[in-house]
Design goal:
homodimer, alpha/beta, Aspartate Aminotransferase, domain 1, 2 domains, 7-stranded mixed β-sheet, 4-stranded antiparallel β-sheet, 15 helices, globular, kynureninase activity (chains A, B), EC 3.7.1.3 (chains A, B)
């Protein structure tokens, strides 16, 4: 029901490249170059300040939020875009803690993306007063949800291994002890079927430059469950979250519902690029995407394991327990990844030894997967990674 | 020493428009369209994830920060760009409060931009524990700096009237009572001569889409004085402010100096547009800019006052006490501004009765000012604003 050959044609992919890193930065939707250009030239250039009304800039954060909302199973009107994911984590967490003033413990796991933990540590330090970040191993989360927990802050899909938490079960457990559940969907939105409403999530946050293909530095998003939307304090209470931003009152009054999670002036050029990317998503059925993702990743695992016995699967073997990435452990993973990139296969490396490959059915097919397996087999089996130029670490890996 | 005819040629200005709203959104630098296009097509499109290293994306927040630093008198290496101004206000304020743990009062004034006050109110509420935002009239700030003040949070130039605080004097007063001084430079950076180092400012923040011409939603900037840079806690402690972001440690360690004020993934398309705008600023001498700004605004005031006795100057008459804008009060200011815009003169309106005009020597000259005066005289003296279509309020004004 989704035509993946048709979606593939809507992306620009450089010649000779197999791109298994859409889980870090999605590729360019072909239409984005013209759309961004038009925004710069015809809107900024010609409309100047009047673009906020005439070109609809001011409405973009909510409009884009709603289109993302469909992909994560949110109720219409309850997602807004803006800022970065780290900022949105902070906003969700501070808001949730204010809603559970009698508790002091934030529960997360050691597989969470470090920025979520760093942001939490900063907030805990600022709040003082007995606040605590409690970290357990990912497989111990369920039993660690005890009745002193204020908030669970979990990333559904592990950025290194692709291991997937059971969002519905953990959320139910959190609610059973009176805690609130925040879900980070960085590796879920556009990667797998997500149903934040069905799972009962209280807050969800995510980024749009990975599976959603919004471009480098594309804005983040935040979801607040309708039952909380008019009560949740926004924490970062900026003017565009005010009930009447252009009244310029001296006192803050939170806007209605999710609008209050807006903070400052939205990044219009980034939002237009994201807008283009979401045009493609509008045609995608998420169940079909998930089925195709599993098909491609199973083919990849089978091929790599057959060809390279020295690589160890770091991801769950059962695709139901994985997101849309596959990781292998290899002691010389950093150098090996450089060697792969040099040969046209782009994946990425995560310390200490994870070689990570993302599966993105919108623009990958069997031929890409088979070519990837060939290149990996060549690099690993012939130790092509064992070259000084592949050992040297770059700033961003 | 700065050739303002030459800088004017570097901007695209729509035909038939006199643009006196560069204090809200600067116009398009001609080079920006191609630069942003190239970033989209050649960098995002061709380099994909490797753009973070190959195209230098990861270094942009600091590189742009340094170029802004020169315009505000900052020491090299002590300004970084990112996020929005409201977020940077929060970061500076939370950081400053943590550095004065024995005090609870934040001093600001009723002329401050409301978002700064909203952000402060949100933080005060979150911190609880006796924290307080104390608001006084702008002219009472100096005497209100008493020894219970933890932090002064002031915008140098009033967004409505253009009234300019004495940054050096108020900072000295704050320091004399043991307080820290945060300066919001939203209407200063690129508008007037600023010397944060000379004035002894502890923190400064600002936006880049007004006088700096970075485009709609361009990133903000933050300055931390070198004496604090390695001690100031970043408050929003995201991964790109970590000492080693790509080590993916579980514990936050603040990066060196201003780098710790980075939070999440930078908006690359916006940063490239800003990069282009700063190319123009590299050729500008700030003393020459200030002299030219005063020359143009004095010409404007004289012309408008001679032609329109019903308008009342809302800005300080002495140009030394003004930023680079001129405001007039007029009961029907909203409708009058719509009528001006309809006739090709773009300024803006700020409640309740302020008609606001920005002076930006990079792309305005005497002919523009004289044409503006003509249009204003026509609209006001002939009551052309008295039409139903000019009364209807738009979302963004």
């Amino acid at each position: 029901m989704t035509d993946f050959a048709a979606t593939k044609a809507l992306f620009h992919l450089p010649d000779g490249i197999v791109y298994l890193d859409g889980n870090s930065l999605g590729p360019l939707p072909r239409a984005a170059a013209a759309r961004v250009s038009q925004t710069v030239t015809d809107e900024w250039g010609e409309m100047l300040i009047t673009g906020w009304n005439k070109a609809g800039w001011m409405a973009l954060p909510m409009a884009l939020g709603d289109r993302i909302g469909r992909l994560i199973g949110a109720e219409p009107g309850h997602v807004v875009t803006g800022d970065t994911l780290s900022i949105k984590v902070y906003q969700a967490l501070a808001s949730a803690l204010a809603m559970r003033p009698d508790r002091r413990v934030i529960l997360s796991d050691t597989g969470n993306f470090p920025s979520d933990l760093y942001i939490t540590q900063g907030l805990v330090k600022m709040l003082g007063d007995g606040y605590e970040l409690r970290l357990v191993a990912p497989e111990e989360v369920a039993e660690a949800i005890t009745d002193d927990i204020a908030v669970t802050l979990l990333t559904e899909v592990d950025y290194r291994t692709g291991r997937k938490h059971d969002m519905a079960a953990l959320t139910a457990k959190a609610h059973a002890v009176g805690a609130l559940a925040i879900w980070d969907l960085a590796h879920s939105a556009g990667a797998i079927e997500v149903d934040v409403a069905g799972a009962g999530a209280d807050f969800a946050v995510g980024c749009t430059y990975k599976y959603l293909n919004g471009g480098p530095g594309a804005p983040a998003f935040i979801y607040v469950a309708p039952r909380h939307a008019d009560q949740a304090p926004p924490a970062l209470s900026g003017w565009l979250g005010h009930a009447a931003p252009f009244a310029f009152d001296l006192d803050y009054r939170a806007g209605a519902g999710i609008e209050r999670m807006r903070v400052g002036t939205p990044p219009i050029l980034q939002m237009r690029a994201l807008d283009c990317a979401l045009d493609i998503w509008d045609s995608v059925d998420m169940a079909a995407l998930r089925a195709r993702s599993i098909e491609l990743s199973e083919r990849f695992i089978a091929g790599v394991e057959a060809a390279c016995p020295t690589l160890t699967l770091a991801s769950p073997r059962d695709p139901q327990n994985r997101g849309s990435q596959v990781s292998f452990r290899f002691d010389q993973g950093y150098a090996a990844m450089q060697a792969l990139i040099d040969r046209g296969l782009i994946g990425d490396f995560r310390a200490p030894d994870i070689m990570r490959f993302g599966f993105t059915p919108l623009y990958l097919d069997e031929a890409d997967i088979d070519r990837a397996i060939e290149i990996i087999a060549d690099v690993i089996d012939n130790a092509l990674w064992d070259q000084p130029q592949y050992m040297e670490r770059k700033a961003v890996t």
